[in-house]
Amino acid sequence: MTTSTQSAELLSATTLLRFATAGSVDDGKSTLVGRLLHDSKSVLTDQLEAVEHASRNRGQETPDLALLTDGLRAEREQGITIDVAYRYFATARRRFILADTPGHVQYTRNMVTGASTAELAVVLVDARNGVVEQTRRHAAVAALLRVPHVVLAVNKMDLVEYAEPVFAAIAEEFTAYAASLGVPEITAIPISALAGDNVVEPSAHMDWYGGPTVLEHLETVPVSHDLTGCHARFPVQYVIRPQTAEHPDYRGYAGQIAAGVFRVGEPVTVLPSGRTSTIAGIDLLGDAVDIAWAPQSVTLRLTDDLDVSRGDLIAPAGDAPAVTQDVEATVCHVADEPLTVGRRVLLKHTTRTVKAIVKDIPSRLTLDDLSQHPAPGQLVANDIGRVVVRTAEPLALDAYADSRRTGSFLLIDPADGTTLSAGMAGASFAAAEEPAADDDAGWDF
Question: Measuring CA to CA, how many Å separate 402 from each of 380, 410, 426, 438, 439?
Fold first, then answer.
């Protein structure tokens, strides 16, 4: 595959933005998404007719654009968002994958799901209520998940007479809070999702605001999908041994490259065993290639017949992650059942699942002032805290700050497979002032 082909693919990838919406209950997330889809001409005629019909049946004179995303029957009946709603749309400048996440505190776990792969998070605030606890929780989750861009959308400005001081006070409070968490970029935009002010078209009621609309910012925010400069990592998903007359000795290791670049002839290490070999060949879509990069799905062939199985990690010999059985991490607890010290769990990291035990819960984050609550003993639903987990088998983990893919994991209930917590290995929040600070900088709660 030529360099020009690689460049073309990477250029194409940069036209895609994954983003998530979050906010407290009734802040207007679904209405914002509906307005965004409607005003950007991303709604099919039959979809709009269905929304208009449903709105009339509910006694509403104008279409309730929130119905474009609240698809579950319970969501429509209660007027709240319960599950993550994914929407795909495009403009002339960029393609989008949008995750509309719930605002109710009991569904914060869904926000973790929606934001885990997002490059940008839109956090809504009701201009009448300002920054509330759930706003701070969503900002903390975005910071923990290392979402590089955060948009503060101060909604319902029409209900505060489009007053600039109201917007300025909310923007100042939120920006200070998010910056203290290490969020690298925060953009505040005053909007009215119901009236359409500053969503797609500039508002005629807020001439004091000279910044971009929500859509303009989404179309122009710089987003890099180039994972080729990251530490190369290849989690093995499947071992291919056809043992046919045509391929009697073929042994390949299939999976998706999580980050970086792999080349034929490159020395590699297989973890956790630590055995070394050399890449003998790379197969991509049935063809042999000399080079492959993230996020391609390929099959690697090695020069040596090593004992490699699903869950192993292949990395460059000179740039392999450390192997450990003691995992220190920050977790967002998402299950209704508490996470307690001594709890036996399964830890799923990339394609590897191992038995583990929760050895310690050193602290829980207090969202109001970002202070640490030491030795809480347990984490309940929607808590964010530090944990120490001991695994039965060694794991090759990166710090989450270095790799969102190979630095993340799930804690799972071994009895029924329920996800208990979403974990991020290493330091918690990013450094608030120095981007180049070491891994231990930032909040250590």
Answer: 28, 18, 9, 11, 9
DSSP state of 290: S
For the chain, 445 residues long, give each residue's pLDDT as a single digit of tens. Answer: 444 444 444 344 447 899 999 888 778 887 888 888 878 877 655 565 665 556 566 666 665 656 655 543 344 444 444 457 788 888 888 999 988 877 666 666 677 888 888 999 999 999 999 999 889 888 988 998 899 999 999 999 999 999 999 999 999 999 999 999 889 899 999 999 989 999 999 999 999 999 999 999 999 998 766 666 789 999 999 999 987 777 778 999 999 999 999 999 999 999 999 999 999 999 999 899 999 999 899 999 999 999 999 999 999 999 999 999 999 999 999 898 999 999 999 999 999 999 999 999 999 988 777 788 999 999 998 888 999 999 999 999 999 988 888 999 999 999 999 999 999 998 777 765 443 333 333 322 2
Q: State how far the alpha carbon of 89 is from the alpha carbons of 40, 166, 185, in Å.
A: 9, 32, 24
Identity of residue 375: A
Residue 167: both structure tokens together: 């917007």
How far apart are the C-alpha atoms of 379 and 366, rounded to whole Å?
Answer: 12
Provide the Cα torsion 169, 173, 175, 179; round to 10°: 160
Q: What is the CA radius of gyration of the chain?
A: 24
Residue 277 contacts residue 284 (beta carbons within 8 Å): no
Indicate the DSSP class of residue 183: -
How many Cβ atoms are within 10 Å of 241's Cβ, its own excluded?
10
Q: What residue has token string 């495009």?
A: 90
Alpha carbon of 315 to those of 151, 233, 279, 297, 321: distances in Å? 36, 5, 11, 15, 8
Main-chain phi, psi angles of 34, to 5 degrees: -60, -40
Query: Could you give the dihedral angle defined by the CA atoms of residues 124, 130, 134 and 139, in that order, rounded to the nearest 10 degrees?
Result: 60
Q: Which pair of structure tokens corresponds to residue 391?
A: 């695994």
CA gap 265, 67 in Å, rounded = 55
**71-97 per-residue burial string, b: 16 or more CB within 10 A, e: under 16:** eeeebeeeebbbbbbebebeeeebebb
Determine the Cα–Cα distance for residues 124 and 30; give it in Å rounded to an integer.
10
State the Cα–Cα distance between residues 348 and 48, nearest whole angstrom: 41
